Amino acid sequence: MKILVRLPNWLGDVVMSTAFVNGVRQVYPDAQLDVIIKKELSSITSLIPGIHLVHPFAKQEHNGLSGVYRFGKKLRAEKYDLFFCLPDSLSSAVMAWATGAKKRIGFGKEGRFFLLTNSYKKPANLHRVDEYVSLLEQFTGKKITERVVRLEVKEQMQKTDLVVLNFNSEAVSRRMPLDSGKHLINTLTHTFKNIKFALVGSPKEKEYIDELLAGEGNADRFENYAGKTSLDSLCVLMASAKAVLTTDSGPAHLANSLGVPTIVLFGAGNEHNTAPYNKQHLNIIRAGKLECEPCVRNTCKLYGIPKCMQLIDEMEITNALDTYLKYA
């Protein structure tokens, strides 16, 4: 049997979908399992156990529904038996249809049910990991009891004295405001005298990281990795760290999936739906002082800046980090 999975479009969602991939391996242990993934995220597939072939997809190269169709059509020669469509978009269902897979399975969102052979209702009020797994359960009729969100770094890692900091997020409402970030960095350096900090971010976030560190008097305590890591090298860096302190973002899921002690600062996001899944060595911190939390918007309509992030108690953060560092 040949199975093709269209993975989600966002980094955190891709990490959460590893439980689905693992579930497919449980139900179909002898099948060939291939994936479609956004080109810019494709390097992470080397850390997901059980994947055979990777088909990178770039919107820039396959624009619009016609481009999506052409991309899917190129895969017809593979003669897939099953196509699992994890994104809810119409375009991903068009891609599934174009592959000619015998069975095309997905949630019946955006009026795309006619493109799928097996369309199911997405269950409400579940964590996203459980949403993905429910699709497999509804199709196969089998209960997936082992839900593992895991990335595997193949290098043997030596633990360092680094704490990785990520104050970024694709959504402005989940990003640490600049002034709050600078103040928190100052607090961390004065609280943890023997720890070095590695700040991470994508190339487009480098300017924000540079501003965070501007004027910081303890330059020897910081390593600026913004724009300098690929996804797999970021995972290697995190796997070697004592802990990761991060906003609600893709890197939070990376750290948690690697088994690194992870502290996640939540604002606009809903931790019941999108928090890192593994409960061990995980600490979720939220201010919880505003009626609008969590708004799940990408921008703050009420205050202009994410006040829910601004109000998070620094002492709660330092206490959580101190707990992990004592036992690291």
Keywords:
6-stranded parallel sheet; globular; single chain; 12 strands
List the helices and strands and how they pair.
Layout: E1 2-6, H1 11-16, H2 18-27, E2 32-38, E3 54-57, H3 64-73, E4 82-85, H4 90-99, E5 103-107, E6 118-120, H5 128-140, E7 162-166, H6 178-191, E8 196-199, H7 206-213, E9 222-224, H8 231-239, E10 243-247, H9 250-257, E11 262-266, H10 271-274, E12 282-286, H11 307-310, H12 314-327
Parallel strand pairs: 1-2, 1-4, 2-3, 4-5, 5-6, 7-8, 7-10, 8-9, 10-11, 11-12
Helix pairs in contact: 2-5, 3-4, 6-7
Explain what the structure shows.
The longest helix has 14 residues, at 178-191. The chain has helices at residues 11-16, 18-27, 64-73, 90-99, 128-140, 178-191, 206-213, 231-239, 250-257, 271-274, 307-310, 314-327; strands spanning 2-6, 32-38, 54-57, 82-85, 103-107, 118-120, 162-166, 196-199, 222-224, 243-247, 262-266, 282-286. It has 328 residues and is α/β, with parallel strands linked by helices. Helix 6 (178-191) links the parallel strand 7 and strand 8 (196-199).
